[in-house]
Amino acid sequence: MSLQRNRPTNEPRPPLRGSRRRAIARSTLRTVVLLGLVLVPLQLPVQAARVGDKHIGWPGATLSGVDCFGGGQGHGPLDYLTASADERNLVEGAHFTPIVEQLIRGQASGVDPLGDIDYTLRAFPNHHRALWSMSQYHLKKIKAVGIESVQTAERAHRGSTPPECYFQRAKVFAPEDKMVPAIFGIYLHKRGMLDAALKEYQEAEAKFPKHPELVYNMGLLYFDLGQIDKAQEYAERARVLGYPLDGLSRKIQRKRAEADSSANTGN
Q: Can you tell me whether residue 257 is helix, strand or coil?
């Protein structure tokens, strides 16, 4: 999902050939599957979404403690889970194409995919994959320029809208869509805000107690919180639910082996 580099912004870009398009599509599908989003539209009650509410604004605050901010409402807002195929395609075909989702480049917004992702999320506040792409974009930005630079811009309401504002907007817009806090939890976990991440995960878990990806992610979080027994419980739950990765179990085994070694050395 890396941003394309070392190409002048005014240089013509070669068209994506068939094999390249298929590779991007496969990569996009892998991302969706790993996030556990494929079956979500079949599971969620969505009647509470504030479809068409032009005054939803930007509720909540950034992680740096200032009021959320963002662009005005244009197309929508529409509930992505109940939108028709035509409504989805109208926005996604022009803005949220595979090259945008993978942060390769923009579609309508030029080199930078940010504008297209922002447009998609203002039109569909609870667009799960766009929320994830925005999170990935922001994490890359923090890594590139540093958290202090990013937060300085936020405090002045300059630059791009932080992901947490999109997530909070989506939660107000579609409060029944519990995949939003599940993805929000992943972002907060990656930011190192473990207690806040746990709160979001638990909100999602109340709706999806048997969601393998969510259960596994919660186990990872409990491990990072130092709650190893709890992490083991969730690792086992994820295994029973068919989650294919076992990295968490290996981490727990290593941690316990280190603790046993230290105890034996101390004796």
A: helix
pTM of the model: 0.81
Measured distance CA(130)–CA(40) in Å, rounded: 15
CATH superfamily of 178-267: Tetratricopeptide repeat domain (1.25.40.10)
Q: Is 52 left (phi over 0), alpha (psi -120 to 50) or beta?
A: left
Residues 167/185, Cβ–Cβ less than 8 Å: no
Residue range(s) of every CATH 1.25.40.10 domain in the chain: 178-267
Separation in Å, CA 263 to CA 173, 258, 266 = 52, 9, 5
d(CA 167, CA 187): 10
Amino acid letter, residue 76 = G
What would the pLDDT profile of 163-215 be if each residue is shown by its tens digit? 999 999 999 999 999 999 999 999 999 999 999 999 999 999 999 999 999 99
Place of tokens 């792409």: 133
Q: What are phi and psi of 262, to 5 degrees?
A: -65, -40
Quick one: three-class SS letters along 75-117?
A: CCCCCCCCCCHHHHHHHHCCCCCHHHHCCCCCCCCCCCCHHHH
